Amino acid sequence: FVGENFTDNCSTHPEPFFTGPHPIVWKSILIVTYTVVFFGGACGVIKMSVFLMKMNTLSVTTTAIVNLVVNHSLFLVTVPFRLYFYATETWIFGSTFCKIVSGMIYFHMYLTFLFYVIILIIRCLVFFQWKDKVEFYRNLHAVAMSIAIWILAFITQVTVILCWYGKLGDYKDNGTCFKFQEELKHEPVKAVNYTLIVLIMITTCTLLGLQVFIISKVMKKLSGSIWSHQEFRAQLKSLFFILIIIFCFLPHHCFRLYYIKNMTNLQEYNEFSLSITTISCLDLFSFAVTGSKAFRQTICSLPCC
């Protein structure tokens, strides 16, 4: 997950970022995607922050969602800089900041995946009655656990940036950013990428199979309108987390298997697959909408339900 091109200074005539057969189309797709992600994600963060004030702060699930809000917020701060670069194809903010903005999209993706997995595991423990409820004893414990996760994440990210990010390739001073090249040709970088791809695919398939089993088991013991049962709606929320992983994260990792071996003329496709991962920022907005009473009443009134 490393290897984005960056430069220390901006040249007068930067190398074009979009070089495919339809550069304007690629540019428009990325700008529209990141614009929707930015505004939708910001609305979701604000709305969910209001909800969290009324929730049990000792719950592990609540703590994971709080961290998810922070993670989305940090990434959304960097989105305007991506939009500026895609619109102008010129990077004017320096190489260090380019590293930060480049790395944040991967930092956000893998940390979001981690919080999703934590939430899903907690829900499975409760469903199978291995735990009546999973809570911290004190708010201090929740804060300490969150800090430990973030410290570990930042240490990992900083290590990657210092050791690999833009260090292994021979890049020209062309005023561009977010451009993968030579790093992915090195075996250590390939090994890290392949390991992450396999780990995410196995974890996703396991969670999906487990969730399908849980939902089928719930539906067998319920009678009447299944939408009227809170237990069924709760399991649909868990399924929604898995669907986000499948839709937002798996396409990028599947494409990456091919991209690592065939990097020529695939830069635009790689940027598009990365932009899909950021759609996960809309999860909080979706929860706010589907969690409203009016939405539930509308769904329950459908004839098929």
Automatic annotation (TrEMBL):
The UniProt record lists the keyword Transcription regulation: no
GO molecular function: G protein-coupled receptor activity; oxysterol binding
Source species: Salvator merianae (Argentine black and white tegu)
Alphabetical list of Gene3D superfamilies matching this protein: Rhodopsin 7-helix transmembrane proteins (1.20.1070.10)
Domain G-protein coupled receptors family 1 profile: 43-258
Record-annotated membrane-spanning stretches: 24-46, 58-85, 105-128, 140-165, 194-218, 239-260
Protein name: G protein-coupled receptor 141
A Gene Ontology cellular-component term: membrane
One Pfam family it belongs to: 7tm_1
Membrane topology: Multi-pass membrane protein
Any one of the GO BP annotations: inflammatory response
Subcellular location: Membrane
Keywords in alphabetical order: G-protein coupled receptor, Membrane, Receptor, Transducer, Transmembrane, Transmembrane helix
Domain of life from the UniProt record: Eukaryota
Tagged with keyword Membrane: yes
Species lineage: Eukaryota, Metazoa, Chordata, Craniata, Vertebrata
